[in-house]
Amino acid sequence: MLDADAKLCALEDIADNDALGMVARIEGKQRNIFVARRGDAAYAYINWCPHAQLLLDQVPGKFFEPEHKYIRCGMHAATFQVEDGLCIQGPCEGESLKSIKIEIQDGAIYMAE
Ligand code: FES
């Protein structure tokens, strides 16, 4: 499990326009999270769909729709923007994924306070 300030992974561990799931300690609790990559940028979220409170990757590790433009929940296909986690289509439209602050330093991704 990864704690605050811990290195989550290297940016290059994540394929571009894809995401990597992992477990980290968030606010004292062990949580499933994922980090999505878009080019040189990365975005981290709690792996928890706001619709029915389930893991997004019902197929483990599959966080994106087939064209890899959006994050998509594997249960009822809620579709989320990569950059801000906003649901733009599906049963929880207008709600958002819970974001996690991260920093990228020298190609490594760390949780930020
Ligand atoms: S649980 Fe994610 S869309 Fe329903």
Name its key features.
113 residues; mainly beta; Rieske Iron-sulfur Protein; 4-stranded antiparallel sheet; 3-stranded antiparallel sheet; 41% strand; globular; binds FE2/S2 (inorganic) cluster
Strand order of the largest sheet: 2-3-4-8
What's the number of domains?
A: 1
What shape does the CA trace take?
Answer: globular
Put simply, the count of helices is: 0
The CATH class, by name, is Mainly Beta
Small-molecule components bound: FE2/S2 (inorganic) cluster
Question: What report would you give on this structure?
Answer:
The chain has no helices and ten strands. By secondary structure, the protein is mainly β. It has a single domain (7-111), classed as Rieske Iron-sulfur Protein (3-layer Sandwich), CATH 2.102.10.10. It starts with 6 loop residues before the first strand and ends with a strand. Bound molecules: FE2/S2 (inorganic) cluster. The site of FE2/S2 (inorganic) cluster has 10 residues, from loops.
Task: Summarize the entry for a quick read.
With 113 residues, this protein is an all-beta fold.
Produce the secondary structure layout.
Blueprint: E1 7-10, E2 18-26, E3 29-38, E4 41-46, E5 71-72, E6 79-80, E7 87-89, E8 99-100, E9 102-105, E10 108-111
Antiparallel strand pairs: 1-10, 2-3, 3-4, 4-8, 5-6, 6-7, 9-10
Bound molecules: FE2/S2 (inorganic) cluster.
Residues 49, 51-52, 54, 73, 75-76, 78, 90-91 line the site of FE2/S2 (inorganic) cluster.
